[in-house]
Each structure stands twice: as structure tokens, then as C-alpha cells.
Amino acid sequence: MSAEQKLIAIEEISEANAPAIYVAGGLQQFIDLVKGEIEGEVPDLTTRKGRERIASLAAKVSKSKTAVEKPGRDYLRRLKEMPKVVEAELREFVTKMDALRDEVRQPLTDWQAAEDARVDKHNSMIRHIEDCGLGLIGGQPQPFVLLFRELEEKIIVDEKFEEFEAEAHRAKATALVKLQASFDEHQKREAEQAELARLRRAEEERAEQDRIRAAQEAAVEAERQRVAQQQQAEREAAARREQELLDQAAAQEREAENQRLQLKLQAEQAERARVQAEADRVAAEQRMEQERQAAARRQEEAAEQARQEERRRADAAAAEILRQQEARERDKAHRASINRAALEAFVAGGMTEECAKQAITLIAQRKIPNIAITY
């Protein structure tokens, strides 16, 4: 191909053939073309014609450069606009596809929301049952009568709990056992406190009676001593009057003798009172010790009886829980066997295993009218 033909090819660069030209190394052919046109020239700078030839060759190179550069710049501007167009198109495509995906998934989303609400309702009811076993309703402590009525009358565990029925039965049984244990412990504490209060009252009454009896005895003794002293004083006055004519020394001796007798009598009376008080104190301590021992024996007997009752209740509750658990395991294995047989029949009939599982689940949950699995 001649140089003239290549220059025409440069001028014919267009939007259609630009992607094939403006690639890595794609413009080297035009550089080689221009070089080929000017490398054979030997300009003569000594003449005007020679100098004009040099200027003409430089202008030709410039023209070739512009002929290649201008379409390339236009092509580059189009390439820069292209990402914006692609981005807008992709954005619209993604938005529409997301909306289509959400529209297709909406039935499953609605079903999942309803399923989550159903499970949350059952879990909330089971937590309410467990709270009753802890002595709470609505997070607040409640009387035992209200708690027992809530568990035994208001909370009925049946098929409305669906697949949570076994767990609800287990929670209710556990709650009743815990609540009964708490009630028994409460009754035991109240009985112990009542017995202690009764013993304190009895002791206080005995102490009050002892105080009243001692006060009465002291008053009687004081009155007796006052009367005795009064009588003695009267005798002494009479004696003094009768002995006024006797010798002063004899009168003084008799007076001294009378005083000694009075002191001796008072000492004897005081000793008798002390002995009696000591005897009363010992008798009172013996009575208190006997009553304390009797109360301790009664308390130990009551505690042992309560322990025996608690042990029997715990054994019965554990046996019932074990029986229910074994029944649930047998029922679970029985249901699994029937479901497995149904799954194998569906698969043998041409369904995929995933579709067969979904069908069995829907039938077991009674969501397919007029169709049921007999267990």
C-alpha cells in the first residue's frame, strides 16, 4: 500500500472504525506512515525552496496528527459518557429486579412473619407458666392462691399449643412442683413463727404470773410484819407502862431481850422467804426446760414429717415427668416413622425430597384442607 493511500485511510477514520483503531499500539501504524513519507526527504537549507519544503513537511506531520487525534478525542468523550449511561441502566435494572424479587418472595415473607408471631406467642405463654412457678405474674410477686388458680384453672395446656404442647406440659408440671414446694416452705415458716410466738407469749405470761405472785406474797409478808411489829410495839408499850415502877436496869435488859428476839424472828422470816424464792425459781426453770424440750421435739417431728412429705412429692413429680418424657419420645419416634414413610412415598411418586418435606410439613400442620396424616 502506498503512502498516499495510507493518508486517505487516516482521513477516513470514523466513529464506526474507531474502536478497532484506538487500542494499545493501534496508532503506531500512522506514526510509521508519516515517518515513511518524510524520511526520504533531504531538505536544502541553503535555498528558499528547501526551507519551504521543511516547513511543508512539518505542516503535513501536524495535519496527520490532527487527522488522527480529533476522531480519537471524540471517541474518548463518548467512552467517558458511556459509564454514566451504563450506571443509569444498571441502577434501573437492579431496582426493577429487586422489586420483582420482593414481589415473588412476599407470600413467604408474610408466612414467616405469621410463623414468628405464632412461635413468639407460644414462647411467651410458656415463660408466663414458668414465672408462675417462680411466684410471679406479670413480673410481680402474687399470693399462692392466685398462682395456683392461674396454673390449674386459667392455663389449659392442649392442642392449641401445637408443637409446643409437650414443652408447655413440662413447664406447667415443673411450675406446679416449684410452686407447691414454695407454698410448703412458706407454710412451714409460718408454723414455726407461730410456735415461737406462742412460746414467747406463754413465757411472758408465766413471768407475769410469777411477778404478780411474788408481789402478792411480798405484800402479804409486809402486812404480816407490819401487824406483828404493831402488836409487838403495843406489847412493848404495855410492858413499859407495867414496868415503869420496876428497876430501870431490869427494864432496859428486858427491852434488849425483846429487840434480840425481834431481830431473830425477822432473820428467820427472811431465811424462810429466801428458801421459798429459791424453790420457786428452780421450779420455774425446770418447767421452762421441760417446755423447751417438748417444743424442740415437736419441731423436729414436724420437720421430719415435712421432709418425708417433700421427698414423696418430689419422687412422684420426678416419676411423672419421666413418664411424660418417655411418652413424648415414643410419640416423636412414631410420628417420625410415619412422616418418613410418607416422604419415601412422595419421592417414589416423583416429587423431589425438598417438595416432599414441605408437603408433609404443611399436612402435619393442618394447612392443607381435607388432608391429614394419621398417627
How does this model look, in words?
There is one protein chain. It is elongated and about 200 Å long. A hairpin with a 2-residue loop joins strand 1 (about 135) and strand 2 (about 140). The chain is mainly α and about 375 residues long. The chain has a two-stranded antiparallel ribbon. The protein has helices spanning about 5-10, 20, 30-40, 50-135, 145-155, 165-240, 250-350, 355-365; strands spanning about 135, 140. Helix 4 (about 50-135) crosses helix 6 (about 165-240) and helix 5 packs antiparallel against helix 6 (about 165-240). About 5% of the residues are buried. Helices cover about 85% and strands about 0% of the residues. Residues about 1-10 have low confidence and may be disordered. The longest helix has about 100 residues, at about 250-350.
Descriptors for this entry?
375 residues, two-stranded antiparallel sheet, disordered N terminus
